[in-house]
Amino acid sequence: MAYTIKDVAQTANVSTATVSRILNDQGGYSEKTKRKVLNVIQELDYYPSGIARGLTNKRTNTIGVLVPNLTSSLVTEFLDGIESVAHNIGSSVIVCHTESHGIKTMKYLQLLHEKRIDGLILASTVLKKEYYDYVEKMGVPVVLLSAYSEFPVPYVTANDYEAAYTGTKYLIQKGHKKIGMISGNKEEWIAGNLIPRVEGFKDALSDNNISFNESCIEYGKFSIDDGVTGLKHLLNRVPDLTAIFTENDEIGMGVLSAAYNSGIKVPEKLSVIGMDDINLCNFMSPPLTSVSLSHNEMAEKAANLMFKMINSDTEVSNCILDYQIIERQSVCSQ
Amino acid sequence: MAYTIKDVAQTANVSTATVSRILNDQGGYSEKTKRKVLNVIQELDYYPSGIARGLTNKRTNTIGVLVPNLTSSLVTEFLDGIESVAHNIGSSVIVCHTESHGIKTMKYLQLLHEKRIDGLILASTVLKKEYYDYVEKMGVPVVLLSAYSEFPVPYVTANDYEAAYTGTKYLIQKGHKKIGMISGNKEEWIAGNLIPRVEGFKDALSDNNISFNESCIEYGKFSIDDGVTGLKHLLNRVPDLTAIFTENDEIGMGVLSAAYNSGIKVPEKLSVIGMDDINLCNFMSPPLTSVSLSHNEMAEKAANLMFKMINSDTEVSNCILDYQIIERQSVCSQ
DNA sequence: TCATTATACGTAACCGGTTACGTAAATTAA
DNA sequence: TTAATTTACGTAACCGGTTACGTATAATGA
Fold it and tell me: In chain A, which among 225-254 make CB contacts under 8 A with chain B?
């Protein structure tokens, strides 16, 4: 195998303790021996083993990130932000693709436990009691990204209710009266009881005296595909819709695609507004108007929060970020 | 901290060796003690430390994946496939976002070296000599995904040259004579000398007696943005183009977007064909015709190859996968 | 000058597992 | 019945680092 600290110590005629001290800038050695040891390290091309170091240090410089999927742009943008922060701090990230699947998620948590990760970020994941109990037991800092929880786990998220309310109101202000919504999976939210984005949608309607009918909401999952099938179902049930609010941009993209393929002009015949403001919105035809939830900031905040918890063991406070409507070309006045 | 194997051994009145044997199904213990130990493990909720285990085993059950970016769909689809294979085999994957940046890449390699990963996959990355020398030194199995190399490192890729040739020929057969190309970064390929997708494009033209002019190729990077700026530059230089072949689908998406915003109808006024056939192609307006390089299969093959090398230390052969044109609606006859 | 303190190390235990080797007890063979 | 073999463990070294503690030497102070 590769050289060890012992090899370095021997060839440099010092003890392993000295080598270790030099490697970690701890002082307690002369300039001369430092140079000598550093030379030997270079010559042998020695790299300390993070494994061995982790064993004593109880620090692996590795964090885990649980994501419900890897094909969603929002999620990969999260991952991107987290990875960037982690790398700057000197940590690596292990990605775990849970598929929102309970058993797979638990398996991943066990795996990360065995790997002795320093911290954990759950992105766009509903924190079930089972998960909470486990991470509690693991005893590592956890933060939720784009999710909240009744359990005492810090989260970084947007005010989904308000954002959805505002997004819907935007459509109303544009003169729309027949507005539908395509939402993600209902069951995902068992924990939260309420689906905030749906509630925001409903309340915006009723506050503006627009009659609401349950059939105006279509529930699916969160992917583009769900947008295309969602639009079909929705228009079957209520054909005179003039605007659609989608729970996220992927669904919105699906709606755009389905509309194109059905010859429904957006925005002339149908206005569409998404949520999250993922980068792809800019490049749709037409560019997709969206409620931006500053998700770049969100990911970085979450990562920074987690590292702060790792380093100082202090409790940190939740963080609710701002939202903002990014007007593009998928919505027009009625 | 958490319980250790010693705690388990003590409370079960056996030695740590016995506990270890039981944990690893190695035999050499009676059913009775096995049950006893297993009970204690459950009671204490003991989980062995992967770190300690890794120290003796020289196996971390962790692999590294280097990717040039995390916002490209192709790359995340790769990542998805690799993660899936790895998880089934019981390995975790560390993502490293290199931004195609030499220094950052080297830093990551060192980090992964320190972490003592079992294997490494370089996705869509040109293997510079510097990288090769380093991974050689690391002594772990490496495989290139969607890349080739003059160095003796196994790769899994498509026949880019032929695929590009065929994609271009498809446009020609549709009657197009004024065809442009938008390619990725020229400098990326220093190592390979030739840019296979560009060569395929050129050769398809000349083999079909279509005059070729260097100004018909626009070089940028690989993102959607480069597609939009690329189209503008290209049309400035040669305005009578009727078709565009893009080095990848992201660039193709950018072209679609720029065309939409400039009022250029696709495919009526401009045909566009991409490469890779990422999932998003299906949802563009219009859906983007693309040369499919079976990248799902590619990622899985690469991962399986790597694990085979990890487990058997045998040399494996390269793998060149098939391509196929997926006709959608962004190309029409001239 | 001698006592005191600081500096520059070395020794060895420890982190939490794995495993080669040794041995008493149980089983089988002769 | 006794010898040979197998089974079921325990002991202790080892993986490759870190670090508490001890000590000889050098530097400082009185």
Answer: 228, 253-254
Identify which of B92, B88, B87 has the alpha carbon closest to the alpha carbon of residue B61.
B92
Cβ distance B83 to A97 less than 8 Å, yes or no, reads yes
In CATH, the number for domain B160-293 is: 3.40.50.2300
Check: CB of residue A154 under 8 Å from CB of residue A194. no
Each residue of A282-324: pLDDT tens digit?
A: 999 999 999 999 898 999 999 999 999 999 877 778 999 999 9
Residue nearest to nucleotide C20 (CA to C1'): B17
The chain B residue lying nearest A279, using CA atoms, is B71
Architecture of domain A5-48: Orthogonal Bundle (1.10)
Domain with CATH 1.10.260.40 in chain B: 5-48
pLDDT recorded at residue B191? 45
| Exposed / middle / buried, residue B34 (Cβ in 10 Å: 0-12, 13-18, 19+) | middle
Contact B47 A110 (CB under 8 A): yes
Q: Are strands A142-145 and B142-145 parallel, antiparallel or unpaired?
A: unpaired
The whole-number Å distance from A28's CA to D26's C1' is: 14
Q: For B143, how many CA atoms within 13 A lie in the half-sphere containing its CB?
A: 29
CA angle A77, A78, A83 (to 5 degrees): 100
**pLDDT tens profile A86-98:** 999 999 999 999 9
CATH code at A60-158+295-322: 3.40.50.2300
DSSP-based three-state secondary structure for B221: coil
The reply to whether residue A279 touches residue B71, judged by beta carbons under 8 angstroms, is: yes
What is the rounded distance in angstroms from the CA atom of residue B92 to the CA atom of residue B50? 12
